[in-house]
Write a structure and sequence with these properties.
By secondary structure, the chain is of the alpha/beta class. Helices cover 25% and strands 23% of the residues.
């Protein structure tokens, strides 16, 4: 600072670059078109400016060719890259020395201004240059948006600390559980276990859609009935079942979903939770069909969607890998929107807990497990133990699970509230049995917020 009080720049370029690199940003490909044909470059210096009128800006180094082309052509587009566009981002950043035609990779079409648009980008804006402003060694191009689009819903590619990466999601504060296998298990204390699980807030699939199986057990509604069509759904709802489940194939159509939802509405049961189960949803080769099925089930009004891992003895090559699951869930979550996704995981090759953790890191808050891992499903005990170590609350605690396995009675004065996603059941038409003391979960430790490391590879500075 001078004696007159004016500030003198003292930050060297290296320090300034390090500081700016700590600000995470998305990654886009800025394109333009003119007499010289198509041109594009990877950039992260992109920002919104105004909604009315719609304005954005990009900042380009005055010494690069892209700068001169934007000045000459007066148009540009920004293509926002998805998390699966890492190779394309590197290509347009000039990191592939042998590439002579950058547009040979990817599917490109001319936009309204003629600027190339990436057809499977996360989003794009097509602009005409409205103003140019000096910005040190860069020029600020103010663009008026003449067209825009969101070709698909996917998570973005990120740039941080001069590296490419993806979002590192925090763990949830709580996960909810469902059990669809215990009702068929020939184990001691099964009936009592069903009652206790329901009172704890674990939804269970009961063997028959009767009044007792529906509301029953003190009026708690944590139960479901599996049906095959709309008529079965109406019968289950009329008998008091607060939720009905039906199974569809991962075929992109969700066959039967419309009939089930509409039948319940027509019969006066619009509040019955409709749970659609997608068979073999986690098979890698069915990923695209699974996403289309999720979109369809969401659109027709299903209240929850279960993504099932195949139960038929998959081997190491065909099983659900954490990486494939992560990719699928990053796209399935946005497709489902506000509709909860539930994972029905197996424990093939000991990967059940790894996939459960991957699911939690990908936004999954509902899991389907079974006490003792009945039928090869992920064991409730194992997931509850993992959650307790990670600071994630569950409806059951370890003491309650030990009591269930031994048949010991563990009285507690007040049952915990059922998860908000479960609909409240209608009052039973006949007196309910005397309530059994419910299990009360122990206080959960503080939630752990250390994210999984994001996959990244080194990249040059982006403009």
């Amino acid at each position: 600072m001078t004696s007159g009080g004016s500030m003198t720049a003292v930050v060297d370029e290296t320090t300034f670059r390090q500081v700016l690199s700590r600000w995470p940003s998305g990654v886009g490909i800025v394109t333009t078109a003119g007499d010289d044909g198509w041109h594009g470059m990877t950039a992260s210096s992109f920002s919104s400016v105004s909604l009315a009128p719609p304005l954005v800006l990009v900042c380009l180094d005055r010494t690069i060719r892209s700068h001169d082309l934007l000045v000459r052509n007066g148009v540009f587009a920004v293509n926002v890259l998805g998390r699966d566009h890492l190779a394309l981002g590197r290509r347009f950043a000039g990191m592939e020395a042998d590439v002579t035609d950058r547009f040979a990779a990817g599917d490109w079409l001319p936009g309204a201004t003629g600027s190339p648009l990436l057809t499977d980008s996360a989003a794009w804006v097509d602009c005409r240059v409205l103003q140019r402003y000096p910005g040190g060694d860069h020029t600020i191009f103010l663009g008026e948006v003449v067209a825009a689009g969101v070709p698909r819903i996917t998570s973005p590619l990120l740039f941080h600390s001069r590296s490419w990466g993806q979002l590192a999601d925090p763990l949830p504060d709580r996960v909810d559980l469902a059990d669809t296998g215990l009702a068929g298990a020939a184990a001691p204390h099964t009936e009592r276990a069903l009652r206790v699980l329901r009172r704890a807030g674990v939804r269970v699939r009961l063997p028959a859609p009767t009044g007792a199986a529906g509301a029953g057990a003190g009026g708690l509604g944590c139960s479901s009935a599996h049906v095959t069509d709309g008529a079965g759904a109406v019968a289950a709802a009329a008998a008091g079942s607060p939720a009905v489940e039906f199974t569809v194939a991962a075929d992109g159509d969700g066959t039967g979903a419309v009939g089930v939802v509409q039948a319940l509405r027509d019969a006066g049961h619009p509040d019955t939770l409709v749970v659609a189960r997608i068979q073999k949803a986690l098979r890698p080769e069915l990923a695209r069909a699974c996403l289309l099925t999720v979109r369809r089930l969401t659109a027709v009004g299903c209240g929850e969607i279960v993504m099932e891992e195949p139960a038929d003895g998959v081997d190491d090559a065909d099983g659900t890998s954490p990486l494939a699951l992560r990719r699928l869930l990053q796209d399935a979550g946005p497709e489902a929107g506000a509709v909860p996704l539930r994972l029905a995981l197996r424990d093939h090759h000991g990967l059940g807990l790894v996939n459960a953790l991957t699911g939690m890191k990908s936004g999954i808050r509902c899991f389907e497990t079974t006490l003792g891992g009945h039928g090869g499903a992920l064991a409730t005990e194992r997931l509850v133990l993992l959650c307790s170590r990670m600071g994630v609350a569950t409806p059951l605690d370890s003491a309650a699970l030990r009591a269930l396995s031994t048949g010991t009675h563990v009285p507690h004065p007040q049952p915990p509230a059922a998860p908000a996603s479960f609909p409240a059941p209608a009052p039973p038409s006949s007196p309910a049995p005397a309530p059994e003391p419910a299990l009360e979960p122990e206080p959960a430790p503080a939630a752990v917020r250390s994210p999984l490391p994001a996959t990244a590879s080194r990249a040059p500075e982006l403009h």
